[in-house]
## 1
Amino acid sequence: MSALPDTMLAAYLPGGSRTESRTVPVPAPGHGQVLLKVRASTICGSDLRAIYREHLGSGPEAYQGVVGGHEPCGEVVAVGPGCTATVVGDRRVVYHISGCGLCDECCRGYPVGCLSPRRAAYGWQRDGGHAEYLLAEEKDLLPLPDSLTYLDGACVACGFGTAYEALRRADVSGGDTVLITGLGPVGLAAGLLARALGVPLVVGTDVSAERRAQARALGAVHHAVEAGELAVLLGDGACVSVDCSGNGAGQLTAVRHTRRWGRAVMVGEGGTLTLDVSPDLIHRQVTLIGSWVTSVHLMRELLQNLDRWGLHPECVVTDRFPLTEVDTAYKTADSGRGGKVAIVTDEAGA
Ligand SMILES: [Zn+2]
Ligand SMILES: [Zn+2]
């Protein structure tokens, strides 16, 4: 093993739409921990909404001034004592919330909902992926199949995992039609995964013509239209709707274009949904599902399925920057024009 450097570059998100790069010590893995060389670290809508522009939230749930980035993927370069399933050279995706491992939510496999004050999300409460190296708990790591790139893995760490969970929670199968409202990176992921699951009709909607065109070009949807055109394509509605817009209008579109006995899943964070409960839900027997990030086991299942399907999540990435250009990366992501923005090293595609 080549000797590790003493210091590394790391990027912080001080708020006010700024980034701050610092040189900091390379951490040493303690008991049960590993050190990853970060190969790819993608930027998420929630990084922009709740950290980069302004620090939302308060108390332990708020951003704690740590290294940013909650979608890291990398290669193990050092292993601490007590690790049992990881060796140097392993390629790993980080499940981006470190839970206590003991509470009801952790036992269900959902550390995202960990009820303990020890819960810490990478890039929020503990150092994340916008650095050359990342200290992670061994239990938070998932194997990256050889056929997938590090950038594929970073895309799974939050966005694709979240989209897959939504589809699985709604029991999506080849017998369903699917509507996706909001064609940002998570909406694109939901479309690509629905198609991979055999859904014969995936329709997407977004207010942005550029995003509709991108969804079509990627093959994430069969049709991408404005909300006013949905009834023509979907008739009585889709069997399953997935809202990835995170705004009230998109959420309402999703519910109202869910057909009788259908399922509507809310994934996009934020927004206020106002429903006319009797006609919108009760009389049409619609099931409304809230789905937050994903579980460890479904993320593992997704990684295995991506390998089988030959599907590469990195296809949603439109812009790649080195860590030294983290500020441009965030400005690009915040412009909302393109798709997913990634911070990568040269070996990201390896
Ligand atoms: Zn995310
Ligand atoms: Zn827990």
## 2
Amino acid sequence: MVRALSTNYEDFAGASRPFRAHAELDDLEVEGEIPLELCGTFYRVSHDPYYERDYYEGGAKTTSFDADGSISAFRIEDGKASFKQRYVLTERFLAERKAGRAMFGVMTSPFSHHPCVRSMEDNVANTNIIVHAGKLLALGELGAPYELDPNTMATVGHNPFPGQIPVNGPYTAHPKVDPDTGELVGFGYGLKGAESNDCTVWILDRNGKKTFERPFERVITGFIHDCAITRNYIVLQQMPFRTSFEQLKTKDGHLWTYDEGLPTYFYIVPRDMDKPVRTFHWKNSMPIHTGACWEEGRNIIFDTTVASSNTFPFLRKSSASTGEPKPVTVNYVRFSIDPNAVSEEVADPEILVDLPCEFPRIDERFLTKRSRYTFLDCFNPESMVDPALVFRGLNCLGRFDSETRKLEIMSPGPGVLVQEPCFSPRYPEAPEGDGFLITMIDNVPKLRNEVIIQDTKDFQNIVARIVLPFRASSP
Ligand SMILES: [Fe+2]
């Protein structure tokens, strides 16, 4: 008997309900016209649990992290588009398919898994997809990248850079490609276990060969989700979560607890091994995804979204919290840190976008340099929902101009939710920000997903909607 998937967990419900399919379609319906300059593949990754995540405590402690990675590829050429979707065939996914049910509990917590799979790697490759050294890589923060065939989408293997980064260790989902050198700058934390405060930064050259490795100790355990790079530094931003297996075993406890008594930390890692790794701190908050980053005078300037408190509603806060809970804000801000400063306290950042927003993307040809434009998801100011639920309510696309300090917002329609945008330049030498913004949206009223394309010459105009005749899962 096949059991219906229940929707006991909000992030796998509604528009985010699992898709659970490999699919392929040619000559997709297109409303409008796909610009002929666009030729290539738009890849996206989604959280798409194949089975109900109910192995450990009936799913009561399931989080949105515990979902299988599924990759979509939209191939665009001559004004036409095709679609292919495949699961990443991780060790975990294959084991559960063989069993016909969930066997893994809470990520990185082997005791919560079925005894038969505790020695397997628990990596879902569900967070990001990039290309490096000619390899298409599906990334999850808590495991090494999986390599996919860029055409068939078949899973090739799990060791894309043999001997360069640990095959069974955590690796960030958000490494950065230095556009000048082609190097991949990435890191992994908790290589010695989820309760360990170790962290290592690696740089792989354009051929995937390791040229830099720098381990250091963090102040606390917990998430470092994203980083920023300049010519000479890597900035790692640590959210104030603590990890504890004992907490997970308590009633309502999770492996990760947001600690309101902690600051957020920024680790500045110089590429020059003779210079020390520095640890800076700012007030309790949750820095999430980075945008532009460059060096200016003595300082490192970096932009990031930052929430004033926990925006993972499924993870509880520490009991250190006192008084009435304050409303959560999520803004796009600009920090400035002098890596040689005596004080380790970071000054308040400049608020760039004073509106709930997330998933900033820049013209990535300008990473490590001062850049002007940031594209990002944001809330429609006229239909605000609780910013603490920012990941469930983003419904507009924004373009922030850091010269004029203006934000232009485009709404793709009532009831529509937007996923992470991706910028493609009009041609290789096009000026910064001149090109196309490509975004998958959840057209909830029409029960379908679309990829929308904006020409940045007229940000308000959707020049093409590539229509899926069904709804795929959300990220
Ligand atoms: Fe992310």
